[in-house]
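Whiteboard transcription, Tuesday session. T.W. wrote the structure tokens on the left side:
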């Protein structure tokens, strides 16, 4: 099948080209991010492949449909960038890769926590500069901490197991509690109780209307003073302005984020020679207790290989009219399950 692959990077092209030797689709790699200005590039492609910051809102879906596209394959798990109701209405099939390496994201979350707690990112720079002072690098034992997990799906549960291995107690909130998670010893509580008891809070829920700005000033006010907040899910689950206020008062003691509300204008590009116009983002970078990575939680070789293989298999299913469990329907917008 002829497929336009948007937001392509060299590492995507490498993993897709390798996997495509088993599928033989006609892949056209485009660097452009998909949006209303670039959608014309997809003319006459029956399928397009999109990533996390490609725009699949109503106007873009309409143009895609007018130009003959009938399949959108997302090479990611999250699908908050797609208007699924509209896609369904106009008969556009949307598929995703629900799981490719939950370990990658869970392990990256641990990396953020370890770095923030012990100031490893700061120590790296200090030591290279001949500064061996320990002032400002005082950490705390993770052993014995209470970790609050919001969203106990694939990634949340693996992250829970990792933190249990370090001797942490896990409290969790999920509107759909998981039997396996309970058997692991996770204690399901209300969001309010989770905020009050957790030393570290980690977000692993999808972005949907229920979770948009779930962490706002009201939620932050209920948290322990000095809480560590970590978000590797989607930027919109945290109200960044509220978190900045919390950081200024010390209510939020540490912030680790791999995702950011307005990341579409920043992440995945080398902007080191540009003047960044996002003042909220730039303010975040001024805090010594904030660590930002640019949506790299998923970025392991295993994950890239699984993403390519599943995406190409999704296209096979569509082309051969086979049922596919990875097809998204509008109900996902509400429940995220
Ligand atoms: P999943 O679908 O397995 O789990 C999500 C869990 O969140 C489900 O158990 C669901 O019931 C729960 N949930 C739904 N609404 C909720 C709410 N209002 N409050 C609390 N929990 C709620 O998804 P998975 O694979 O664990 O991924 C989690 C999120 O991680 C994804 O939605 C995606 O946004 C993000 N992600 C980030 C990556 C990165 O590179 N940083 C890579 C892959 C995923």
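and on the right, the sequence the group agreed on:
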């Amino acid at each position: 099948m002829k497929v336009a692959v948007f937001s392509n990077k060299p590492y995507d092209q490498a993993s897709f080209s390798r996997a495509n030797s088993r599928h033989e689709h006609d892949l056209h790699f485009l660097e452009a991010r998909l949006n209303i200005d670039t959608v014309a590039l997809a003319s006459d492609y029956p399928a397009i492949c999109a990533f996390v910051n490609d725009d699949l809102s109503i106007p873009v879906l309409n143009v895609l449909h007018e130009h003959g596209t009938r399949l959108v394959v997302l090479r990611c798990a999250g699908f908050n960038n797609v208007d699924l109701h509209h896609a369904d209405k106009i008969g556009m099939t949307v598929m995703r890769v629900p799981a490719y390496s939950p370990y990658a994201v869970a392990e990256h979350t641990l990396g953020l926590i370890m770095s923030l707690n012990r100031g490893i990112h700061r120590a790296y720079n200090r030591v290279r500069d001949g500064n061996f002072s320990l002032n400002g690098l005082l950490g705390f034992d993770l052993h014995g901490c209470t970790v609050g997990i919001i969203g106990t799906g694939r990634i949340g549960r693996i992250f829970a197991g990792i933190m249990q291995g370090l001797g942490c107690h896990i409290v969790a909130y999920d509107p759909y509690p998981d039997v396996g998670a309970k058997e692991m010893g996770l204690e399901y509580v209300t969001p309010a109780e989770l905020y009050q008891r957790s030393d570290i809070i980690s977000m692993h829920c999808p972005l949907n209307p229920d979770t948009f700005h779930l962490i706002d000033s009201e939620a932050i006010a209920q948290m322990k003073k000095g809480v560590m907040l970590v978000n590797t899910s989607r930027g919109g689950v945290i109200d960044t302005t509220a978190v900045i206020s919390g950081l200024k008062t010390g209510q939020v003691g540490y912030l680790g984020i791999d995702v950011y509300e307005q990341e579409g204008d920043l992440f995945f590009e080398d902007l080191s020679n540009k003047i960044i116009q996002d003042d909220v983002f730039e303010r975040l970078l001024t805090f010594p207790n904030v660590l930002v990575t640019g949506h790299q939680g998923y970025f392991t070789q295993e994950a890239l290989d699984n993403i390519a293989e599943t995406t190409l298999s999704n296209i096979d299913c569509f082309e051969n009219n086979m049922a596919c469990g990875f097809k998204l329907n509008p109900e996902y917008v509400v429940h995220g399950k």
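Someone added at the bottom: The chain is about 35% helix and 15% strand.
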